[in-house]
Amino acid sequence: MERSRRRFLKTAGLAAAALGTAPVVKSLAAQTKVLPSPKAFKGQQWAMIVDMRQLTEEDIAAAVKACHTVHNVPQIPSVKEEIKWIWPAEYENAFPGQATRYANLPEKFHGKHFPLLCNHCENPPCCRVCPTKATFKRPEDGIVLMDFHRCIGCRFCMAACPFGARSFNFSDPRPYLPNGQAPNPEFPTRARGVVEKCNFCAERLAVGQVPACVEAVESGALVFGDLADPESQVRKLLRENFAIRRKAELGTGPNIYYIV
Amino acid sequence: MLEKALTGSKRYWSWLTFLLVVIGVGFGCYLWQFLVGLKITGLSRDVSWGLYIAQLTFLVGVAASGVMLVLPYYLHNAKAFGRITILGEFMAVGAIIMCGLFVFVDLGKPMRILNVMLYPRPNSILFWDMVVLNTYMGLNLIIGWTVMSAERKWVKPPDWVKPLIYISIPFAVSIHTVTAFLYAGLPGRHLWLTAIMAARFLSSAFAAGPALLIVLALVIRRLTRFDPGREAIHKLSLIVTYTLIINMFFLGLEFFTAFYSQIPGHMQSLQYLYGGLEGHAKLVPWMWVSGILAIICIFIMLVPAARANHALLGTTCVAIFIALWIDKGLGLIVGGFIPNPLEQIREYSPTAPEILITLGIYALGALVVTVLYKVAVSIKEETGGELAPH
After folding, report:
1. Mutate: best of B36, B109, B126, B277, partner A, most A CBs <10 A
2. Each residue's pLDDT tens digit in chain A (260 positions)?
3. Is there a contact between B124 and A160 if contact means CB atoms under 8 Å apart?
4. What is the pLDDT of residues A44-79, one digit of tens each?
């Protein structure tokens, strides 16, 4: 009896102390709030224009290499377990249903590959289906992001994405880092069991850098900008050129445009 | 009451031992998967769900089919079912436990599973699937156990259980509807993007589940002193007959829409499943076995004399269960991923550890059902299966 009362008082005292200090802890935590860098780019809906007239195969290779190096994307040889954020594809795979038996693409595009990546849709089905909000559309700039620490690896988003933009870490990705390098310390490596995809270089935009793929393509065939800004380079290009989007008929609102 | 599961014949114990061995093997394989990741399965970037999620889909149907006993008995006073509603309810409990485990083993990060409750997103169908499945399992466990306790004491079940029974009826429909919505609302997956997906799920469930119940009832009659009753089995066989016909009709509707419209996306998965696509045809023999079995079974089940012959009925029900399992527990989920969004074909076949984990979960479900049935049947043997007057 005596002992249990003492234990009760002890527990109650500890609980009261915890309750009392909670506001202090909270206010300390509030002080560590991260402010955005003054250099950070601001936009309402980021988008990318791929100018296929200028883009070369070397450009695509450079973009893939830059992206996968910056983001520690593992290079897994098996097609089954492959992880890719941006990759080349042929016309009939990039735009299924568009290709006809008589080539309907101007001759200068024949044999060329289209770079594919997450479309950062306006109405992304992947975010709708995620049961834990581990993937979400960032309200301030429209980027579809992943929280690698919350993802439970159910792969519902992979079934929902009509663009095949998402990859799953079937095994530990770290032994497969690009070119056997040490990881880029600026970006986290992933653990086995989570989904990943292109993040439009959200971490680079935050410090005033353009996406790695855009930077790597020296011809300027990849153009990144804010669709909501009528003066932006992307809006200008769309005003002056005809551009297509992948599977626009599904209503997801892809934000990657291809000028052909 | 659980003590009744602790005494049994030698045959009972050897069956449990056998199940425990299969569970042990499956658990061992799961530990391996847990340590190295889902790479030990046949899943890929393109076919990102396979055997596990297909079993979830199929077994939700088996669970929902318990309502085929509960609804006629409680809403239409179909007295014949009174003796065996408990079998339907406990089968549902076993099936849902398996469903939960199949989701669990499919997760890349199982230790984070509570995130579904910590950060719920009501837009996600998976969230709702979890809610309705758990509620339905709870309802069945409470209802089954309470009614059984009352039966044992030869008293009428308490009044509070009635509302729960009525709630469980729409919940049975809801679990399979919500499960169909996992697939039916995804843009760009043409095989699944069909308004009759939930209807197809329910019809195949109400054929496969009662077919399994008939088999279980026949087994119980042979192995124990409890007779589930000829009348109940007869009524169930009618339900199986008509739902199986409706299911095949729905499948025909899918074929019509795809092939009369000639829209490539709508045809491709069906072509892959039933004829092969660009030389890839791994599932074709399976799908034909399923279709032909189902049609033969319809013709057998339509003959009253065949339904009355319990040896033939049992065999036919096993065949129906297999036919519907192939259709839903294999073809439907895998077929939805082929071709992939880039119209490339990457096939899928489960690996040995994946199959062993699957069998382990089935064995665990069988163990749960065996123990619950053992208790239920022991009580039925004491009371002769008669119910206290209501």
Report:
1. B109
2. 456 777 777 777 777 776 666 666 665 555 567 787 888 899 999 999 999 999 999 999 999 999 999 999 999 999 999 999 999 999 989 998 887 777 677 777 778 899 999 999 999 999 999 999 999 999 999 999 999 999 999 999 999 999 999 999 999 999 998 767 688 888 999 999 999 999 999 999 999 999 999 999 988 999 999 999 999 999 999 999 999 999 999 999 999 999 98
3. no
4. 999 999 999 999 999 999 999 999 999 999 999 999
Cβ of residue B117 closer than 8 Å to a chain A Cβ: no
User: Is the Cβ pair A80, B44 closer than 8 Å?
Assistant: yes
Tens digit of each residue's pLDDT (9 = 90 or more) over A81-117: 999 999 999 998 999 888 777 767 777 777 889 999 9
- DSSP for B76-105, please give it: H--GGGGGTHHHHHHHHHHHHHHHHHHHHH
Do the chains contact at A159 and B49, CB–CB below 8 Å? yes
Integer Cα distance of B123 and A133 in angstroms? 10
Residues of A in contact with B120 (CB under 8 A): 131-132
* Cβ neighbours of A133 in B, within 8 Å: 119, 121
Q: List, for chain B, all residue ranges whose pLDDT scores fall below the cut of 70.
A: 385-390
Q: Is B77 left (phi over 0), alpha (psi -120 to 50) or beta?
A: left
Euclidean distance between CA atoms B220 and B152, whole angstroms? 19
- Structure tokens, B299: 């013709």
- CB-nearest partner of B108 from A89, A131, A153: A153
Q: Is any Cβ of chain A less than 8 angstroms from the Cβ of B344?
A: yes
Q: Between vectors from CA B306 to CA B241 and to CA B214, what angle results, nearest 5°?
A: 55
Q: How far apart are CA B243 and CA B285, in angstroms?
A: 24
Q: Inspect the interface and report whether the beta carbons of A80 and B113 lie closer than 8 Å.
A: no
A251: chain B residues, CB-CB within 8 Å: 187
Give the integer Cα–Cα distance in Å for A211 and A200: 6
- From the list A116, A131, A163, the residue facing B121 with the nearest CB is A131
B39 vs A81: CB contact, 8 Å cut-off?
Answer: yes
Other C-beta atoms closer than 10 Å to the C-beta of A260 total 18
Please count the other Cβ atoms lying within 10 Å of the Cβ belonging to residue A244. Answer: 16
One-letter amino acid identity for A133? K
**d(C-alpha B162, C-alpha B174), whole Å:** 19
